[in-house]
Design brief:
Blueprint: H1 22-58, H2 64-81, E1 100-102, E2 121-123, H3 130-152, H4 156-160, E3 183-189, E4 199-205, H5 207-226, H6 265-275, H7 290-303, H8 307-315, H9 320-328, H10 331-362, H11 367-370, H12 377-395, H13 402-412, E5 420-423, E6 426-428, E7 457-459, H14 464-483, H15 487-500, H16 505-511, H17 515-521
Antiparallel strand pairs: 1-2, 3-4, 5-6, 6-7
Helix pairs in contact: 1-2, 1-3, 1-5, 3-5, 3-7, 7-8, 7-10, 8-9, 10-13, 14-15
């Protein structure tokens, strides 16, 4: 007898988070910036007026329904006379795009409310009552969230955990800067941490995100003041400290408590997309917070050659494998990265060719100018290739223009397969099949073994000043250590001099006139310096 054939259940289909489409990010970004920079200052003024009205009416001693009606009429008066102004001081009648929010009638006086249409979606402009203002503040809050999420690349638990005092300040109360712009915001990360309380870490925010954060602190405080039409009942216990959460419940329709922290961020994002009249499921997947993290990973991976190490620090990953899995789990992203990498290599070659051709046309006699400012032994090879290509073009009766430069760049880079950037400012021009001293074979370049004596090494012009300074310091150190009889230390500095001298042809010519350098480069012993020797 045979039993019924058994089958393993089909594996569940994993709904991996997808990066957001570029056009979608651009549209949501531009609309968010308008909400932040143009709409919010108006809402802040209106909100402060409403808060003042709330304070006055709350202490009047009237019955709740009388307070509600008084407040309703007061808000109507504020909105009826308000003049909407953009960031440039120009009046505007409506937003540059349609704002669509669930309309609620809860802000009407008791005798005028219509319970049959509380959830009908319609245009919210112009706002007609407190609920509209709170709803619009909720939309601006999500614009702040968009900017911070795209800047931090944090998980939703990390972004939602930010507090109102997360911006790091110095002793004078000014934001702690990192670099020339931006600031640091302090929060907690929970995933991969043993401690349930998480681990404290800092995120670097650009200026636009710092502005969004500061404005959100104002917004969440304001929304707590005006979120209720009626004053809260007196409590027997008084809180010793105020709330610290950064994100508040601020959904339209009066269905949320604005004094409580926001918990369901993905639902809020879906409402945000509808409010901006945008697709709530771009690329066939619901808009959710983790897609911002994947989007940032994609943009960085496409834009930067050192993306894995940068993203590892940004995302707080424990090892590089996690970051690589993040980047490479999306097959379409892998294909995009390969295309962008090839285009960047060709672009890098086109720039070098263009600068060398311009230098030749200018007719400068200086070697550095003839090489377009580039250094490394590969610069001479590139210039030779340019001269050969230009002669061929002239022989055919053609000008050596943009098309010729592009064609030569494709040829030199083996259609984008070569010209890898092995470190900042240093390019390996070795094409597939060529051997190099870094790997003793025909494989890919080995950045840790890149040598200034390699024929394939091309150095960008901005390194020249650093190399010149390094040679100057190395010569001074070599002479000093030699005079003190420090043989090993002098030998080290002699090696530094020999490594730097070949990097730029004009610097070689300059320093070869120095007796110390000339002696070392012509085979003198490295262990000591003898005046006049």
């Amino acid at each position: 007898m045979t039993g019924e054939r058994q089958f393993n259940p089909a594996p569940l289909e994993i709904d991996s988070h997808l990066p957001l489409p570029d056009e979608y990010v651009a549209q949501m970004g531009s609309r968010s910036l308008w909400l932040i920079n143009d709409l919010y200052p108006n809402l802040k003024k209106i909100g402060e007026s409403i808060a003042h009205l709330w304070n006055e009416s709350g202490s009047s001693g009237m019955a709740p329904d009388s307070i509600r009606n008084l407040r309703y009429k007061g808000v109507q008066s504020i909105l009826k006379t308000y003049r909407w102004i953009d960031r440039n001081g120009e009046a505007f009648e409506a937003p540059p795009f349609q704002l669509i929010l669930p309309k609620a009638a809860n802000n009407m006086p008791v005798h005028k409310r219509n319970p049959s249409t509380p959830d009908e979606e319609a245009s919210v402009w112009p706002p007609r009552g407190t609920r509209d203002i709170v709803a619009l503040l909720g939309v601006v809050q999500m614009a702040h969230y968009f900017v911070l999420a795209m800047s931090m690349g944090a998980r939703q638990s990390e972004t939602l955990d930010l507090t109102r005092n997360a911006l790091r300040l110095d002793v004078d109360g000014r934001p702690v800067l990192r670099g020339h712009d931006g600031a640091l915001v302090r929060g907690r990360t929970f995933k991969l941490e043993d401690d349930v309380a998480g681990r404290v870490r800092d995120w670097h925010l650009p200026d636009v995100a710092v502005h969004a954060y500061k404005q959100q602190v104002e917004l969440v405080t304001l929304i707590e003041k005006i979120g209720r039409m009626l004053p809260r009942e007196n409590r027997l216990t008084v809180a010793t400290t105020g709330p610290t959460h950064l994100w508040a419940q601020a959904a339209a329709g009066g269905k949320s408590d604005t004094s409580k922290p926001l918990l369901d961020i993905n639902r809020a994002l879906a409402t945000f997309a509808r409010a901006l009249d945008m697709d709530g499921a771009p690329a066939g997947q619901n808009l959710r917070s983790h897609r911002f993290r994947k989007t940032l990973a994609r943009l960085v991976a496409l834009a930067l050659t050192q993306a894995p190490s940068i993203l590892m620090g940004l995302f707080g990953h424990k090892n590089i494998e996690m970051t690589l899995f993040y980047i490479l789990s999306d097959k379409e992203l892998r294909a995009e990265i390969e295309v962008v990498e090839r285009e960047l290599r060709v672009m890098r070659a086109k720039e070098a060719i263009h600068l060398m051709v311009e230098a030749d046309i200018a007719g400068s006699a200086e070697q550095s100018s003839l090489l377009g400012g580039y250094g490394g032994l590969a610069a001479l090879k590139v210039r030779t290739a340019i001269e050969t290509s230009r002669r061929d073009s002239f022989r055919r009766g053609q000008d050596f223009g943009a098309d010729s430069i592009a064609e030569l760049a494709e040829l030199l880079t083996f259609q984008g397969q070569a010209w890898e950037q092995v470190r900042h400012g240093v390019v390996c021009t070795k094409v597939p099949g060529q051997a190099g001293p870094c790997n003793k074979g025909t494989g890919r370049p080995e950045p840790s073994r890149c040598q200034s004596s390699c024929d394939h090494r091309l150095e960008e012009a901005f390194l020249r000043a650093d190399v010149d300074g390094a040679i100057h310091d190395a010569v001074a150190a070599y002479v000093s250590e030699s005079e003190k009889g420090e043989v090993l230390s002098a030998a080290f500095w002699a090696g530094q001099i020999r490594a730097h001298i070949p990097r730029f042809q004009d610097l070689r010519d300059k320093w070869m006139s120095d007796s110390v350098v000339n002696s070392l480069m012509n085979g003198a012993p490295s262990g000591g310096f003898h005046e006049g020797g």
